[in-house]
Design goal:
The structure is a homodimer. Chain A has a two-stranded antiparallel sheet with strand order 1-2. Chain A is built from 16 helices and 2 strands. In chain A, a hairpin with a 2-residue loop joins strand 1 and strand 2. Chain A has a single domain, classed as Farnesyl Diphosphate Synthase (Orthogonal Bundle), CATH 1.10.600. The model of chain A has no long low-confidence stretch (mean pLDDT about 95). Chain A is mainly alpha-helical.
């Protein structure tokens, strides 16, 4: 059995190869580029961790893990085009470096490559793995569309935001875990516990993401603290603040959303603090974390095998960036 | 057994349904939109025709046919974004109607939907069908990238253009035929003959496309005759003309490529005629058509069953639009 850290290292080393042919370079070099600029590889490692929960890791789990990481990077390339984002992981985004058309195509071919990896999975599991992957892939697209739709709306309820976040980010973590379980020969019950564990962990992860963007330690966060506030991004914090702020704070907050004063981040953070959305977010994250842990607890596997998945969850919950 | 016309009608009727969920409408309505604005459905009908060559049509062939048509429309949506094309089949393109970001996502989710249809295919054929589909999908992306690369190049050889066209358009026709054969239980030899038939037919189709754009009957063509010439598009005709024109015609042609005089189409057509690229193209098309027919001839199936595929080939070769 491997620790979370050991598995992360093993995957990183296996994945650090060229995944595409040399010809056509103008298409495949951009696709390879984004794979080379880092990333935490959380999702593929989830496949491996969930797989090893049930038995030794099967070679199929590596194929599924690679497919998941390729899918994730496909969605990043296309999201960055839609968001007109110039930088990702401190490097130029694919469309900035190679142009939008090529980035679009490089994303497309990366999605196809993900299916090539899935098609290496043993025939006994292929249909089920594909079904899960297809459903999840469509959901991620739905989540991204909802996210764009919300940008044009004045108000978004917490419930709507949760649905969007679940689709856009959590279902892929959930599916990664479930895929590992399927390939590990786990029963339906265990597969579903792993799915729910991943889904709740994914939401906790996103709450943490929103929290760090506002309250993170600037020296450790790695990005500009307050970026979401400056972009008027609807986050867990903003949605909760708009719902719980005093009438006066709410009015100021709405004015701040429609302007860009020099002290905008500071002012919004003051209101966030007055509404105690920082404490609220910490509690919310804890709730989802506990739900995730309960699903792991309820998975009928001896406790000792669950340790690496607990390490992953702890890592995600205590990260500073 | 069905005629080509009968199978086209059957597919059109089966395919005329909503392929996507209601929620999220803002994502799925745009995807559904392009499926509703027509198209010849050549590729899915190729799946069915090739399938029925060997036995009664299997239900799996309809799933594969739907997957192929969805893939084709996915590639059209994304190509139209890259080409900034405002109109397709006389209607607004998806990105013109719904915005680029939504069109990008609608294309993505349509590709995923294609894989959902493929995953309905019987387990005995799933791996092989997926492998063919994945290879083909990647090749179509490569073809589109080469096409974009060629736009920025002064000269493109006939050989390079042929490679690009084969990837961008022919391999999908070829794969459609081969997929039908696989699902019909055909042997490897027959599968490959059908693939080569489709590939050669696809190239003949593209030669015809280039020819009609320059020399088509304006009343029957449906698009503006000379569109490729006005866009300085590298076509079979232009590449051949640049290689075979007299020194003087070549000079004039290159000047015309760098300017947009009112009589540009007329002038270029004069040069085309003087180089006899119209006759050359007709012969080239005939060569590829004959190659395609030879592969059909060499497929070890009784002659009577081949009639519908011959009808398809005749239809493609004699079309006026």
């Amino acid at each position: 059995m491997h620790s979370f850290a050991a598995l992360s290292k093993i995957f990183e080393e296996k994945f650090a190869t060229r995944h595409f042919p040399e010809h056509t370079k103008t298409l495949y070099d951009p696709a390879q580029y984004i794979l080379g600029i880092g990333g935490k590889r959380i999702r593929p490692v989830c496949v491996l961790l969930a797989n090893e929960l049930f038995d030794d890791i099967t070679p199929d789990a590596y194929y599924a893990a690679a497919a998941i990481e390729l899918f994730h990077n496909f969605s990043l390339i296309h999201d960055d085009i839609m968001d007109k984002a110039p930088v990702r992981r401190g490097m130029a985004t694919v469309h900035t470096k190679y142009g939008e058309s090529t980035a679009l195509l490089a994303g497309d071919v990366m999605l196809v490559k993900a299916y090539e990896y899935l098609n290496k999975v043993d025939a006994a599991h292929l249909h089920k793995v594909l079904q899960l992957f297809n459903t999840t892939a469509a959901e991620v697209c739905e989540g991204q569309q909802l996210d764009m739709d919300f940008e044009h709306r004045e108000t978004v309820s917490l419930e709507e935001y949760l649905e969007m976040i679940a689709l856009k980010t959590s279902v892929l973590v959930a599916a990664s875990m479930k895929m590992g379980a399927i390939l590990g020969g786990a029963g339906e019950g265990s597969q579903n516990h792993l799915y729910e564990m991943g889904k709740n962990l994914g939401i906790a992860f996103q709450v943490q993401d929103d929290y760090l963007d506002a309250f993170g330690d600037p020296e450790k966060f790695g990005k500009q603290v307050g970026g979401d506030i400056l972009a008027n991004k609807k986050t867990f914090l903003l949605i909760q603040a708009l719902q719980t702020a005093s009438a006066e704070d709410k009015k100021v907050l709405q004015q701040l959303l429609q302007s860009n004063p020099a002290n905008k981040v500071q002012e919004v953070l003051h209101i966030f603090k007055r509404c105690k959305v920082d404490e609220w977010a910490t509690q919310l994250q804890e709730q989802y974390y506990q739900k995730a842990m309960q699903h792991l607890e309820d998975t009928p596997v001896v406790s000792a095998r669950k340790q690496p998945l607990k390490e992953l969850a702890d890592y995600l919950m205590t990260r500073q960036s």
